[in-house]
What we know:
The chain is an alpha+beta fold. It has a single domain (2-89), classed as Alpha-Beta Plaits (2-Layer Sandwich), CATH 3.30.70. Helices cover 27% and strands 41% of the residues. It is built from 2 helices and 5 strands; from the N terminus they run βαββαββ. It has helices at 17-28, 52-64; strands spanning 2-11, 31-36, 43-50, 70-79, 87-89. It has a 5-stranded mixed sheet, with helices on one face. Helix 1 (17-28) packs antiparallel against helix 2. The longest helix is centred in the middle third of the chain and has 13 residues, at 52-64.
Amino acid sequence: METLEIELYGNVQGVGCRAYVRHVAQKFGVKGWVKNDGEDEGKVIVHAQGSEGKLGEFLRMLRTGWHPIIVKGMKTRKIDEQEHLGFTVKY
């Protein structure tokens, strides 16, 4: 089990990105949370926890996006974090 911090850049706020990320996370059994970056209107932050395979599929779907979400860039890094029980949208 590993945990990633993911930053999504592009047309990702006000277009249903957080709901899409939660849907994809639930599809692949990924736990964690998603929130808009309050300082950067073009960035969404995700903490995602799961197996390497599930996280790989999760990231692939996030890169693909879903209209009108346009992911122009993505940064990921491994982080230490406590285990999550589900996947939530933070406000």
